Amino acid sequence: MAAHRPIHEARITRMRIARGLWRAAINCLATIGLLLCVVTFTPVIPWYAMRLSGPWYEPKGDVLVILSAAGPNIGVIDPSTYWRCTYALAAYRQHAFERVIVSGKDVAPDMRNFLIFGGVPAEKILVDNASGSTHENAIVTAGMLANLSGRKVLLTSDSHMFRAYHSFLKLGVDITPAPIPDIVKRASSYSARWGLFFAELDETLRIAFYYYKGWI
Question: CATH assignment of 50-213?
Fold first, then answer.
């Protein structure tokens, strides 16, 4: 009888482990299901984009700064950069800026061409074709803004505005944020929400990294 006890105890241990794994699997699936419902069927994606965008000020001033989005940067403007330039063009047509700065490595010249095609005089546009990150956008553009007077306006996507604006603020640049409805608009499509969820997750990690580096 005593010889069978270790076998019996081992069997009980295996059963407990199996039950623990089963409960963990059920909890994991329930969490995934809940996340799926929240991301797909609630307004959490546009809500978070609005929190990151901050106040929505009218893009009116003397100098307009447009930041490019991360993209292929091979001579083709990615969708987010396209919409930033489109809204910048609309802002210019409403309130003609004295200067327009486009900033983004390998894509700024194409942003410039887009704006010229839309009616912005070429001599008004300054190009930063060196910045490969938001931190570099702020550093290079801050140097350009130091020589320009008047009210400065920063235009970028809603979810990007927090990191961008605070990057300029950290450098002591007095600039007015003018976010555009990028994720807020695209989140109207249910099929796009998971891609936007991961985009916002990525942006959140970048914000944490910028805090860690002391850049915001």
Answer: 3.40.50.620
